[in-house]
């Protein structure tokens, strides 16, 4: 499955339904709350190709460490850092973010669209909080899906979803409360953001299949790609929301 994402998301710098404008809006929120600058340190768990850390380092001079299990994405992150001339300010580590054990030296800790590392929202926040230098002053940035319009049972079966896979926004608030954090701001994706993230995968995947017809994973990848396309067009585009939530640890 990891390889399928590496193939389909090749060339997609932001591996979430998040436009460049909204990415920098998140940076502005973080700057307003904690004051991003040369002394600010950010940890990004499951960082993908490192776009958030690189752009914040470029814009604010902040420092960052990104962790991702994919060597392909880590290579891309290092290339991006070099292209933006921020390699001295950001470091990328290839490893499993679910078991990464950071020192508590960070002002911002983020996990954008990868709460599978902790099992779900609450578990991921439990991984993030210990990395904060000062829990009362630090900031958590969490990218998470939610049901905008809950699917009916037939749609759940078609998508192969277990009950509780995804909360509503109200359910997310309950999870935040259970984790001991307070939501103070959010930046939500719209349908255009979703389309800009999902649809380039189809062409990238199509080209890869044409170029690698004899790859042992080709049939499984084609099935995965087509199933994802169908689920997105029939259900997810209508039902699924996504946002980055700015969270403060409750004192």
How would you summarize the topology of this molecule?
Blueprint: H1 2-8, H2 20-34, E1 41-45, H3 51-60, E2 63-68, H4 71-83, E3 90-94, E4 108-112, H5 121-128, E5 139-147, H6 153-159, H7 169-178, E6 181-188, H8 191-211, H9 218-239, E7 240-249
Task: State the main characteristics.
251 residues; alpha/beta; 7-stranded mixed sheet
Structure report:
The protein has 251 residues and is an alpha/beta fold. It has a single domain (15-151, 162-191, 240-249), classed as Vaccinia Virus protein VP39 (Rossmann fold, 3-Layer(aba) Sandwich). The chain has helices at residues 2-8, 20-34, 51-60, 71-83, 121-128, 153-159, 169-178, 191-211, 218-239, and strands at 41-45, 63-68, 90-94, 108-112, 139-147, 181-188, 240-249. The protein has a seven-stranded mixed sheet with strand order 3-2-1-4-5-7-6, with helices on both faces. Strand 4 (108-112), helix 5 and strand 5 form a beta-alpha-beta unit. The protein is globular. 39% of the residues are buried. The model has no long low-confidence stretch (mean pLDDT 94).
